[in-house]
Amino acid sequence: MQMKRLLATSLCALPALMAAADGKKAPNVILLVADDLGYGDLSCYGADRVQTPNVDNLAASGVRFTNAHAVAATSTPSRYSLLTGEYAWRRKGTDIAAGNAGMIIRPERFTLADMFKSEGYATAAIGKWHLGLGDRDAEQDWNAPLAMALGDIGFDYSYIMAATADRVPCVFIENGRVANYDPSAPIEVSYRANFPGEPTGKSNPELLYNLKPSPNHGHDQSIVNGISRIGYMKGGGTALWKDENIADSIAEKAVDFIKKNRNNPFFMYLCTNDVHVPRFPHERFRGKNPMGLRGEAIMQFDWTVGQILKALKKMKLTDNTLIILTSDNGPVLDDGYMDHAVELVGTHSPTGPFRGGKYSTYEGGTAVPFIVSWPGHTPKGKVSDALVSHIDDFASLASLLGAVLPKDAAPDSRNSLPTWLGQEDTPRPFVVEQAQDHTLSVCDGEWKYIDPSNGPKVAWATGIETGYMPRPQLYNLKKDQGERQNCAEANPREVARLQGILDQVRQQLDK
User: Fold this and answer.
1) Residue 404 and residue 124: Cα distance in Å, rounded?
2) What is the pLDDT of residue 385?
3) In terms of Cα–Cα distance, which of 390, 422, 395, 419 is closest to 406?
4) Is residue 68 within 8 Å of residue 352, measured between CB atoms?
């Protein structure tokens, strides 16, 4: 596999190398993915109880989309699709990953990072990962180099959280090894049983000095930094993160990568953690927002965006850097911790005008902020209502580079680059969305069809409406953006048409 990548690099790196020979540096690309950030969580999307000036400035320099969709309403499948150009529901094992899941994207899969690397780019993944590490589930040796890591799927450099902040192991992984490893505190991880003598949030609530878990969410197991998590962990020592410093660590590593590669084209997959639970932002944001920790976490996300923009400006890279800013899925308020997000939200609507949220088949689950900025190439301050999807990330960026993809790569991705860059407003003909229970829906910009499902009406313990119903659902989003009036019975032809699109996609006949 390594030989395959070396050969691909040597044969296919022509566009970037030729650009350098002509004196025109190939554009840097930053794919900046927030975690659980809602469509309505940014001031440029209408939020008035939190201000996000750095994101607003980015939107003012490029194109802000109002009809953009993640592929899935939860993290792991959404990110899988972003990096592979394949709908996650086509692959087993792409649901929300445990912290000790094995690598979900296997080395034989041609990834977005592989594509950039083959074009002569330096590549990096920094921040949240949540796509597994190591060769097999629950068999990682966290005290040694991992048998399989991000270097095996195209990333030259990685500094990542194995899963999410609410799951163990609570350490950063740098280039396949625990960062700042402490040999005096060897690491053990289990999602089956606790280790003898180790405290948990359930049995030792007196040790939860930073955040306490919400009832019935399962975030009451091993304790790290005064916060209980999902899963059991022993050891870690000085390698354990402090939640209040996670954003700083991610931003620092991102800026370092930019500095080291300022003279070469680079691709950075930069994923923040802030808005995902446990929300525990740095002290400098405390007391700065009326929505409490969640509002402060949004401010912290905006700060990270500002750090990246400042670094690019300082190194005179702004005009040659394409930034795509989005979120992995829709928002959630109470997702496992007693951080008062529900009580303090007030008039703020994290999903904007949409129903549902994270986990849901309603638009709130997958309608996400989406901003594309490349000074000199994107019109300033354009607002586009063109229908776009994360699934097209791969093919669109391949088009940007003039890259030739292997025939089995990015099977569901379409080239939408002219629309993404604001050069035209051609919408995608349809988007396919996946809810937590794998219920699929399809939307063509006007009509949205949701497959029948027998799942619960409310997601887990979050209070979010799932949209699962045992009968077909059809909504006219032009007239009913909030998906309140199911008009399937009155429009059988539209139901049949959209069912037909889904059937074609399932059979891989959509291209």
Assistant:
1) 21
2) 98
3) 395
4) no
Distance CA 322, CA 277 (A): 29
Q: How far apart are CA 335 and CA 322, in angstroms?
A: 33
What is the DSSP code (8-state) at residue 328? Answer: S
Token reading at 126: 């920094």
C-alpha angle with apex 452: 451 to 453, nearest 5 degrees? 115
CA distance 166 to 273: 10
Strand 232-234 vs strand 28-34: parallel, antiparallel, or unpaired?
Answer: unpaired
Place of tokens 């090894």: 177
Give the 3-state secondary structure of residue 95.
Answer: coil
Nearest to 128 by CA among 303, 256, 282, 269: 269
Calpha distance 296→281 (Å, rounded): 7
The pairing of beta strand 464-465 with beta strand 458-459 = antiparallel
Length of the chain: 511
Q: 29: Cβ–Cβ under 8 A, 6 or more apart, which residues?
A: 116, 121, 266, 267, 268, 321, 322, 323, 324, 397, 400
- E-strand spans in 252-389? 266-271, 321-327, 370-373, 382-384, 388-389
What average pLDDT values come out for the chain (511 residues) when binned by 10 residues? Answer: 37 42 78 98 98 98 98 98 98 97 98 98 98 98 98 98 97 98 98 98 98 95 98 98 98 98 98 98 98 98 98 98 98 98 98 98 98 98 98 98 96 98 98 98 98 91 95 98 98 98 84 44
- Taking alpha carbons only, the member of 174, 132, 179 closest to residue 156 is 174
d(CA 100, CA 349) in angstroms, rounded, equals: 34
Are 486 and 475 in contact by the 8 Å Cβ rule? The answer is yes
Global confidence as pTM: 0.95
- Is the separation of the CB atoms in 384 and 491 below 8 Å? no
Distance CA 240, CA 498 (A): 49
What span, in angstroms and rounded, lies between the C-alpha atoms of 159 and 272? 12
Contact 436, 309 (CB under 8 A): no
Look up residue 505 and give its two tokens. Answer: 């996609």
Tokens of 244: 């209040």
CA distance 203 to 294: 27
Q: Which residues contact 340 (CB under 8 A, 6 or more apart)?
A: 292, 293
Sequence-ordered alpha helix ranges (H) in 119-245: none
* Per-residue DSSP letter, 202: T
| pLDDT (0 to 100) of residue 11 | 35
Taking CA atoms, 504 is separated from 355, 436, 465, in Å, by: 27, 22, 28
Q: How many helices (H) and strands (E) does the chain have?
A: 11, 22
- For residues 475 and 356, the answer to whether their CB atoms sit within 8 Å is no
DSSP type of residue 440: E
Of 417, 431, 398, 407, the closest CA to residue 87 belongs to 431
**Residues 128/276, Cβ–Cβ less than 8 Å:** yes
Q: Looking at this protein, which amino acid is placed at residue 327? A: S
